[in-house]
């Protein structure tokens, strides 16, 4: 079998977005999970981009809609060089394909579920990374996705698998403890410290501590023994609850993003800063790049399945910096951030 036979076909940019990326057999009008998840991510993309454009005041999102020969497609939106955001991307995709074993390993963490041959799949999700210009305004990442795999053609009767994944996390260059506590409480992260924690507690009181730790463990740069940022919530391969409950949970978490993040930006976007503050922000963005290209499962899955490169690498900042053997002075604000990345804290 050739590589192209087990890869996602190359996308075609289209002039107008379609009404739906779903196939007729996916139950667009009968309330299927696929249909309702697509509706959720489309609505979230609209609401997040609207809120970010209103806050920025100058920048506008460029939109590219695309489809794939094998079915599905997506909408990529990126704002660059705005008044507040250096780069902000909010992408959605609803795609079908057949993935090679190495891509399945990137998509599914459980070693017990590994496959030896190509696996048909359906994947839908929204992914966003927001990089503000001001060093005192934190970067935000969020991603919520729904995944299904079918049995390979040579394995009749094998069960279809499905799972939800996602999370929201904050990556500041400087610590303002009240911002972090607000984020974690608003978005379920820290109550992500009231909105995130509230979102988790509404469904299961074990979710917040479990997913907060999962986030700390997942966004870990092993070769530096430090976290990418100050955490949030993260979950993956989640299918041990009712589908309806998990769809509602993912929706609740997604709805918490704007109220968790926008107030922080409004407070920090105009804070005075100097060149040393900006240089530290660029060094932390270098860490962001390292994690995404070396450890992130979503990036790995996209690259291994021949996905749309501009959409996959949308998460990378417009600028970053690597400085040889940089060590912040102990006790400095930069040192406090690095210490928190190396030793995760309970913010609420």
TrEMBL record:
GO terms for biological process: chlorophyll biosynthetic process; protoporphyrinogen IX biosynthetic process. It catalyses: coproporphyrinogen III + O2 + 2 H(+) = protoporphyrinogen IX + 2 CO2 + 2 H2O. One of its GO terms (cellular component) is chloroplast stroma. It is found in: Plastid, Chloroplast. Pathway: Porphyrin-containing compound metabolism; protoporphyrin-IX biosynthesis; protoporphyrinogen-IX from coproporphyrinogen-III (O2 route): step 1/1. GO terms for molecular function: coproporphyrinogen oxidase activity. The keyword tRNA-binding does not apply. Keywords: Chlorophyll biosynthesis, Chloroplast, Heme biosynthesis, Oxidoreductase, Plastid, Porphyrin biosynthesis, Transit peptide. PROSITE patterns: COPROGEN_OXIDASE. The keyword Transit peptide applies. It is an enzyme of class 1 (oxidoreductase). Its EC number is 1.3.3.3. It comes from the Eukaryota. InterPro entries: Coprogen_oxidase_aer, Coprogen_oxidase_aer_sf, Coprogen_oxidase_CS. Homodimer. Belongs to the aerobic coproporphyrinogen-III oxidase family. This is coproporphyrinogen oxidase. It comes from Gossypium armourianum.
